[in-house]
Amino acid sequence: MQILKKIAFWRMIIVLLTGSASLSAQTPVAVEYQLKAAFLFNFTKFVEWPADVYSSDQDPFVIGILGGNPFGSFLEDVAAGEKVNGHPLVISYFKNTNEIKRCQILFINKTGQYNVSDILSDLKGKSVLTVGDTPDFLKLGGMVRFFINASNKVQLQLNPDIAKTVRLQISSKLLRLTEIYTQK
Amino acid sequence: MAFHDLPIQKKLMRASLLISGVVLLVTCTTFFTYEFIKSRQEMKEKLETLGKIVSANSTAALVFDNPKDANEILSALKLEPRIEGACLYTKNGVLFAQYSDSLRPVVFPNQPGQQGYTFSSSSLEGFQPILLGDKKLGTLFIRTNLADIYNRFRLYLIITLSVVAVSFFLAYLLSDILQKNISIPILSLAETARAISEHQDYSARARKYNKDEVGVLIDAFNQMLVKIQEQNQILSEFNTNLEEKVKIRTSELETSNKELESFSYSVSHDLRAPIRAINGYGAILEKNHFQQLDEEGKKFLAIIVREAGRMGQLIDDLLAFARLGKKEVQKKPVDVTALANEAADDLLKLNEENFKPRITVNDLAPALCDPVLVRQVLINLLSNAIKFSHNNEHALIEIGSFEEPGIVTYYVKDNGVGFDMRYYNKLFGVFQRLHSYEEFSGTGIGLAIVHRIVTRHGGQVRAEGKVNEGAVFYFSLAN
């Protein structure tokens, strides 16, 4: 487990830091999602969840993936053995909206054919960091959006106002890096 | 000059200057070193803290792959003008973001180095890990310029050295003033002692300055001088008395000596007349009335005549000896060889018997002496030698000399009867005889005359002998 976790971490870091240079070496989509997986994992460190999202100390911290897994085993590898504030990190895959149970981060895959706005309105009031990569994700009420910028880098767009309403505290360090989205 | 031979004033000065110099130097060096080490330590801690702040702020930029933001964070360092530059490396050592002071561009290391900070000649630089929780995300390199700190220390050093110099000068002035308190009384004491030993003036006194140990020393010294003066007084009085006493005694002695001499002279002289009478009438009796005497009378007459003759000889010798005391010694260079040959010839001629000893006269060194008196010495010694060799058929007499600086020693050596060294002290006395008159004739005054003549020349006489093995007589003269 320990070795696996290490390998996964190294892979993540390599991908994360060599960035665009290595994009051409592998299939572009795979590398992009490796980065996104790493970012998803790193949100656990720069976002604070209210204590009441856990019912007990043994409750896991859940990263939920809705609509197909674009990360392959990569996210699993990164999360293996990790803990968030003492809660074991668990990855859950949801096929459809009905399956969405309790989770702290929800990644809504663009490949999934869902009514994103419905999902988001369902989650309203729950302390779940919603992440997506569709262009209108924030407009529909999402919190964090991945996008590829002009220099072919994965960047973040963020709506802190919504996060605040569900008592998620986003670190200023993270905020500095992101493009802030404001509702027009 | 070695330190312990220096004058006391210089010694005191050097000692106090050395002490103050060492104290100043040690103090200043300690403070300076402490300050230097401390501020370097502080500098390092400050830079480390700054590095930690930057590291903490850079975590998100590193994790979310945002070098632009990282650059922004680093560029905040320009608010600290000492910072020359800083850069971030990723976990695997790739340069991720950097900031460099526009005035002093920094060439960043290609790879992150060992964790920790190091001082170079003008800067402090180091690497520290960027951690998120317990995970290392990358490395921060940061460098700060130390020129102004070092400049400040240069200034400190100059100030310190100036302080040392000024303090040292003040110490010099102070010790110059203070040492006089100690040195002047000692110097004055030494000067007094020197003057006293030079002029022998024990009435001088050393001046007392203070009531310290030197004061005690000066008091003791002065008391000693008083004692010396008193004793000198007593001694000189005693001396004067003694001299006077000696003078009186000497003149008394001289007077009595003269009296004694004239007495012995007149006694000898007066004794001669009756002896002549006895001799004369004895001779007439022998000549004109010899036949009228019986055998016994003839025998007695012969004894009277012989003994009267001997008495006459004794008196003559005594007179000669007495005259010697009055005669003045007239010194001149003398060929002693010729003198000895003459004496030997005369003696051999006079020797009536058929006994002819062999006399060898070596080449003798000349001497400064009275020839008449030294001739007497040679005659006396030679005649003694002949006389005491009488029994020896192969009598051999040798006259020789040897020289030492300023002195020439002559000797007369024979192989006659010799003498017993036990009686050596009687050898040169007047009328002292080691042999009976019957055995060897003579009045016993010859060696006394030799002794007197040589002594009056300022020389010395000595002899060596062994019974039946001969004798050697030495006398020394100036040359």
Q: Would you mind describing this structure in some detail?
A:
With about 180 residues, chain A is of the alpha/beta class. Chain A has one domain: Rossmann fold. Helix content of chain A is about 35%, strand content about 20%. In chain A, the strands form 2 sheets. Chain A has an 8-stranded mixed beta sheet with strand order 3-4-2-5-6-7-8-10. A two-stranded antiparallel ribbon of chain A has the order 1-9. In chain A, strand 5, helix 4 and strand 6 form a beta-alpha-beta unit. The longest helix of chain A is centred in the first third of the chain and has 19 residues. Chain A is globular. By secondary structure, chain B is of the alpha+beta class. Among the domains of chain B are: about 170 residues, Beta-Lactamase, CATH 3.30.450.20; about 150 residues, Heat Shock Protein 90 (2-Layer Sandwich). In chain B, strands 2-1-5-4-3 form a 5-stranded antiparallel beta sheet. Chain B has a 5-stranded mixed beta sheet with strand order 7-9-10-12-11. A two-stranded antiparallel ribbon of chain B has the order 6-8. In chain B, a hairpin with a 3-residue loop joins strand 11 and strand 12. In chain B, helix 4 runs antiparallel to helix 5 and helix 5 packs parallel to helix 8. The radius of gyration of chain B is 58 Å and the shape is rod-shaped. The two termini of chain B are about 50 Å apart. The mean pLDDT of chain B is about 90. The chains are: A alpha/beta (about 180), B alpha+beta (about 475). The interface between A and B is medium-sized, with 21 and 19 residues.
